Every structure is written in structure tokens, then in C-alpha cells.
Amino acid sequence: MTALFTRLWQALSDLLSQFGGVLLLFLDVIATTFIRRPRWKETIEQMYKIGWQSQAVVIITGAFTGMVFAVQTGLQFHKVKMDTAVGPVVAIAMLRELAPVLTGLMVAGRVGAAIAAELGTMKVTEQLDALRSMGTSPTDYLAAPRFWALVVGLPMLTAEAMACGIFAGYLVAASMLNIDGAYYWHNMLKFTAAKDVLAGLIKSVFFAAFIAMIACHKGFHADEGAEGVGRATTEAVVVSSLTILIANFFIAVVFNTIVPI
Amino acid sequence: MIRIESLQKSFQGSPVLRGVDFEIHDGETVVIIGQSGGGKSVLLKHLCGLLKPETGHVWVDDEDIVPLNERRLAPIRRKFGFLFQGAALFDSLTLFDNVAFPLREKRSLRETEVAQRVEEALEIVGLTGAGHKKPAELSGGMRKRAGLARAVVGTPKYLLYDEPTTGLDPIRADTINHLILRLRDRLRVTGVAVTHDMASAYKIADRIAMLHEGRIHAVGTPAEIQASPDPLVQQFIRGVADISQEVPSGNTTLH
Ligand SMILES: Nc1ncnc2c1ncn2[C@@H]1O[C@H](COP(=O)(O)OP(=O)(O)O)[C@@H](O)[C@H]1O
Ligand SMILES: [Mg+2]
Q1: What's the half-sphere exposure (Cβ side, CA atoms, 13 Å) at B140?
Q2: What is the torsional sign of CA A86, A89, A92, A98?
Q3: Which contiguous run of DSSP H or E holds residue A79?
Q4: In ligand 1, which atom is closest to the CA atom of B85?
Q5: pLDDT tens profile A41-89
Q6: Which residue's C-alpha comes closest to atom 9 of ligand 1?
Q7: ipTM of the complex in this document
Q8: Which of A75, B89, B177, B205 would you call most buried, defined as having the most Cβ atoms within 10 angstroms of its Cβ?
């Protein structure tokens, strides 16, 4: 009984200290951004790696999600003769939930893993110590460029996924479900608004910050050896994915209170 | 001058440094010897504030660096050049950019001056013309020399060498020894090297200090250390394993 209690306590304090570490890193990134000169070269390089090179993954994710969603809702709505409602349903789902969450998860897997593995390797090969020994802070040189590249890049990727999902859904509806394309489009525009896009994009900004800070923190604190780097990478992906899924709910609730649907 | 005063450091409750007292004078090269895993690298990292001790002080030019935060440490660290055990070159940068890194971080030099000083540093370590290569394309010895170029390019006052010759063949190791001597004689660099390579230690050291069980066990010139009557020192420098584990004398082929 006490053993169980001790282990629970251990797990809880571990979680809290991880959370504290991520939060401190975030504050350090913000402070660094205002105090230090911006590192444009590194930031643009990261935007290319994080944003540009993730596009294929994001486009495929967005398009096929939109397609399958159109098919499934189309078949159901057809039973109740509401075929033209497929457009707005697909659009709202893509804009508010599917595009931001799935893009976030894909990027957490692709980019979060890459960041944690790269920084973790730098940690165990003493490259982080080397940076510090030359008077350069790893937050300034490594974390801040990755943070800003993700915070700018992920909303753009999310927007791309939204567009691809909606357009692919439209194509499926028009070609496979025999829904009149004009009706589909008209209804979709009628029942969606700028705030739906905004809700999705705001989420993605939060998700970007979570991925960047969790992956950087895990990398910076990787244990010795290849095993340590592997563990840091796995944990970065698992923790940032779970954080995205959990935070998604709360952000949605808060956003809906501030901006009623 | 660097003065270390009752330095104590432990990791996860197991002590590594148990009260190190030591002084490094300007212009000399000190070699710290000791067993693998004995805390030599840990001690070296305390000298420029990469690690913080539980108790004790590190005075660099009469300033205690232990209480300083990362931001306040930055200017002090620029007095140091650090050659890491595995060279710790940045994988993503070319050799030239690696060596240029500390200069560019100062942001006070123009790119033409940076290029000139990088070329000079590469020349000192015998890597002229290799600037465009990535660290992954280099051999272990070349990486060490590139790491040395990066450590000296900012003309530091102090140079810290973590196992500069370990893992190199005897000829490459000797090249590094000569480089270290040249840096001391030509640039008046104060050096602290950590090694368990005794040949190298005798060659480069003005003084040798032996770290044993978290304390400085013996200090002296190479001649004094060689002549030391201390059994622990003799055992270490002659590379004899514990008497109880020594190979029976009949089995000489194993030596
Ligand atoms: N960052 C660290 N975290 C935990 N333990 C460490 C760390 N750095 C060193 N140690 C431990 O301290 C001891 C001394 O290591 P080190 O200074 O690298 O030895 P060496 O004399 O071979 O350079 C080792 O037992 C090592 O495991
Ligand atoms: Mg070591």
C-alpha cells in the first residue's frame, strides 16, 4: 500500500517537474527572443525543414480525412435525405477539429521526433556543452528557432490540410455520392464562418508551442547513450501527441465560451 | 589563475568529487590524471561553469564563478577554449563554420577577418583546405584537431583539454602533444588537460595532479611524480592492475 502510494507520488512529482521544465524553457525562449538578436538564418532553415518538408504528409492526411469523412457522412445523411448537409459538416469538422488535430499529430510524429533526436544526440555528444562553453545558450541557438518555426509553420500546414480536406471532400461528394456540387459548395459557405477557420488556426498555434517545447525539453535532457536518445524521441512524440489531444478539448471549450458558435 | 576550493559534486547521490583543492597558475600546463570514471571530465567542466558543484568555489581571475547564472557566465567562458573528449563538433555545420562559430558569436568581427582567423587556426592544426568538409567525413584524429582549432580560434587565455590523445594512434597523439606545447609556448595559453595517457602527460605537463577518489591525491612535476614513493601513484603511472589481479608471472605471454 505504501509502496503504491510512493510510486504514485513519484510519478506525480516527476510529471510536475517535467511540466515545470517545459514551462521554464518556454519562458526562456520568450525572454531570449526579446533580449537576443533574432537568428534569422537558423529560423528560416527550421521553417524549411519543419514546414516545407512536412507538406506531403499533411496534404495526404488532410485530403484522405476529408474524403473518408465525406463518404461516411454522405452515406448516413442520404438515408435521411440530407445529402447537401455533407458540405457544411465536412467543412466544420475539418476546420475546427480534424485539420488542426491531425496535422498536429502528424507533425508531432515527424518533427517532434526529429527535434528530440537531433538535440538529444547533441546532448550526449557534448555539443550542447560545447555551445555553452562558447558563451552561446542552447535556448537561443537551438530552441528559439525551432519554436518560432513551428509556431509560424504549423498554422500554415493546418490551413493547407483544411483546404485539401474540404476540396477532396467536395470531389468525393460530387463524383461518388452524386451530390450536386453547386449545392454542396453553397451550403458549405452558408454554414461556415471565419471564426471556424480561426478556431482551428488558434488551436494549431498552441499545438505548435507544445510540440516545440516538449521535443526541445526531451532532447536537452536526454540520458547518456543511444538508448537515452531513443527514449527521449519516443517520449517527445508520445507526450506531445497526448498533450495535443487533451489540450484540444479544453481549448475548444474555452474558445466556444469566448466566441459563441 | 584558476583556484579550486573544496569542490564537491555528486550525481544521484553518489559522490564524484569529494573536496578538490587545486590551483592552476598562469602560463603553465597542468595535467590531471586518474582512473576512467574518476571524475576528471566532471572536474574540467566545473572550471568554466558547465557544471555546478554542491559546495565549493571556482575562482577564475579572482571571480567566483559558482554563483553566476548562464548569462553572467558567458563573458567568462569566452576566456576559455574547450576541447571535448569526442571533439563535440556541430554535425550540421562544415568544419569552417565550426571553427568560425565562436568568432561569429562575438559579432564584433567582419566576415573577412573571421575567414582569415579560421584559416590560420586550421593551419595550426594541419587541416588547411579541409574547411568545406562535414564532421562526419573526418577521421577521429582530424575531428580532435578540428575541435582544437575551434578551441583556440578565439585566442583564449585558458585551454581545457578533455583526453586530447585518447583513441588516437601514437603518431597522431604525438602531433596533438606538440600542438599543445606550441600553444603554451607561442600563445602563452594556460592549459588544463585531463588524460590517462601517461606518455602524453609527461610530454605536455609542467605539473601533474592525480585525482583519486574525488580528491587531488598527489601533485608534482613529471619528474617528481615519476619518482614518487606513493604506491597509488606508482601503480597508476606504471599501469599495473591491483596486485591481487595481476597475471601470474609464469604466464608472461599474456603481457
Ligand atoms: N551528467 C552526468 N549525470 C550523471 N552522472 C554523471 C554525469 N557526468 C558524469 N557522471 C558520472 O560521474 C562519474 C565521473 O565521470 P567522468 O568525469 O566522465 O569520468 P572521467 O574521469 O572518465 O572523465 C561517472 O561515474 C559518471 O557516470
Ligand atoms: Mg572523461
Answers
A1: 11
A2: negative
A3: helix A55-79
A4: 23
A5: 999 999 999 999 999 999 999 999 999 999 999 999 888 888 888 889 9
A6: B42
A7: 0.90
A8: B89
Q: What cell was used for A42?
A: 537558423
Q: Which residue has the cell 591481487?
A: B244
Distance CA B248, CA B245 (A): 9
Residue in A108, A111, A104, A132 with CA at minimum distance from that of residue A220: A132
Backbone angles phi, psi at B35, to 5 degrees: -65, 155
Q: How far apart are CA A175 and CA B80, in angstroms?
A: 69
Residue B39 CB–ligand 1 contact under 6 Å: yes
SS3 category, B207? strand
Which of B77, B98, B155, B159 has the highest number of chain A CBs within 10 A, making it the mutation to test binding with A?
B77
DSSP structure string for A96-108? IIIHHHHHHHHHI
Grid cell of B145 as nine digits: 584537431
Establish if A135 touches chain B: CB-CB under 8 angstroms. Answer: yes
Helix axes B140-152, B95-106, angle to 10 degrees: 20
**Is the Cβ–Cβ distance between A114 and A230 less than 8 Å?**
no
pLDDT of B250 over the 50 cut: no
Averaged pLDDT, B71-83: 93
**Widest pairwise Cα distance in chain B:** 67
In this structure, the residue with its CA closest to atom 24 of ligand 1 is: B37
When scoring B12, B68, B69, B70 by the number of chain A Cβ atoms within 10 A, the one with the most, hence best to mutate, is B70
pTM: 0.90
A136 shares contact with chain B (CB less than 8 Å): yes
B51 touches chain A (CB under 8 A): no
Q: Taking CA atoms, what residue in A is nearest to B101?
A: A134
Half-sphere exposure of B176 toward its Cβ, with a 13 Å CA cutoff? 31
Q: Which residue has the cell 617528481?
A: B224
- Which residue has its alpha carbon closest to ligand 1 atom 25? B37
User: How confident is the model over A239-249, as a mean pLDDT?
Assistant: 96
CA B10, CA A65: separation in Å to the nearest integer? 53
* Separation between Cα atoms, residue B205 and residue B33, nearest integer Å: 11
Q: B82 C-alpha vs ligand 2 centroid, how far in Å?
A: 13
Question: What's the pLDDT score for residue B246?
Answer: 47
